[in-house]
Amino acid sequence: MADLEINGNFLDFYGINHDFPGIRDVQDSQETVSFHNNTTIRIWPNTQTDSFEAHWHAALEIIMPVENYYDVRTGDTTYHVQPGEIIVIPPGELHELLAPDSGSRFIFMFDISMIARLKSFVGIQSILSQPLYVTKDTYPQIYEDVYRLLIQMRNEYFNKNEYAELTIFALLLHFFTKFGYNHINASNLFPNVRLYKQKEYIQKFNNLMEYIDDHYMEDLNLEEIAESTGFSKYHFSRLFKQYTGFTFCDYLCHRRIKVAEELLARPDLSITEVALQAGFPSISTFNRLFKQYKNCTPSDYRSRNTKTLLDGNPYS
């Protein structure tokens, strides 16, 4: 992959990543992400022909093929990503990477834990519950802007600017905002509902997402939540699935798993305490669901992250 000259500046695609080991460290289904020079970002041109079995990592991953396709498989879905297309893989998403015999692509890795703590980010959480396959057809309203923002991030990174990390995260916030507005402005978000009612529903569900974010550790009952929003149980369930892509119970479990991942990084908490603080009714339920979502037990997850910290890399 040749380096580029942008506005008189030469983008060195390889020199800046001198601290990068050049290989992706995947062990026991978890990848340890090596961020650049103690930052929270790594962007690199990738020409590897190796494929990776089902794995996950705590970083957000974005892949932009440049030459030839790149396949990403999650569950029963395979995304055949072509040059000019983008795949956004959420943190914690179990996925396979299937490389062609030749080709190149840019891979972006971000630790978005700080962004995820922003109150308004709760509306983006449901969008990032599954991979985003970004093409001119799937996201016609925002494709050009999203692609441009990623190119800006890439150029900022390889230009080695003084405030590159800060600038890139400002662009990343803009990137997320594009998806957020695209989601709530989608004409088919609540089909067969009048426009003024759609806005009312969006506000209700935004408020509900904030409520879940504050009360996930409590016993949230579907019937009571539906009643609090003014919908019947069945009407609420249908609208919630349209808004988030999840059933209510699945989303609540998804949110609790995310909390548990953060709590497991605290050695002062036992596995049982993590389960209870994350809102799971029992340790057995927690172990079963965590293994189902993460393909490893909570103890295995903690051991892996503890090893990462001891090895001197604070991110996973």
Describe the protein in words.
With 316 residues, this protein is α+β, with helices and mostly antiparallel strands. It is 43% helix and 18% strand. It has a five-stranded antiparallel beta sheet with strand order 5-12-7-10-13, covered by helices on one side. Strands 6-11-8-9 form a four-stranded antiparallel beta sheet, with no helix packed on it. A two-stranded antiparallel sheet has the order 1-2. The protein starts with a strand and ends in a 6-residue tail after the last helix.
SSE diagram, text form:
Blueprint: E1 4-6, E2 9-11, E3 25-27, E4 30-32, E5 41-46, E6 52-55, E7 60-67, E8 70-74, E9 77-81, E10 86-89, E11 95-98, E12 104-110, H1 113-116, H2 122-125, E13 132-134, H3 143-158, H4 164-185, H5 195-215, H6 222-229, H7 233-244, H8 248-263, H9 271-277, H10 283-294, H11 298-310
Antiparallel strand pairs: 1-2, 3-4, 5-12, 6-11, 7-10, 7-12, 8-9, 8-11, 10-13
Helix pairs in contact: 3-4, 6-7
